[in-house]
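Exercise: predict the fold of this chain.
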Amino acid sequence: MPLYEFRCPRCGVFEAMHRMSEVPGSRTCRNCSETAVRVFSPIGLSALASDRAKAIGDAERSAHEPEIVTRVPNHPGGSQPRTTQDPRHLNLPRP
């Protein structure tokens, strides 16, 4: 079950576990019984594995600054290797 944060006007922020289908917009504070409202906070990206965090960062950057590909990745030079032996494919347009 995920943790949700609630803010009590007297005691401050506290966490509570709820099922995703049953999370309330407010709940009673454990200490003072005041009504505490739910606080929306960012997810814990620091808990992600470094490769997953890098993939998320790359995806966010590429949404606004896409990389321009000028050649086949991991292939030296600009020429592309032939992948077919069929002579009819020689007339197809190449990138």
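Check your answer against the key: The radius of gyration is 27 Å.
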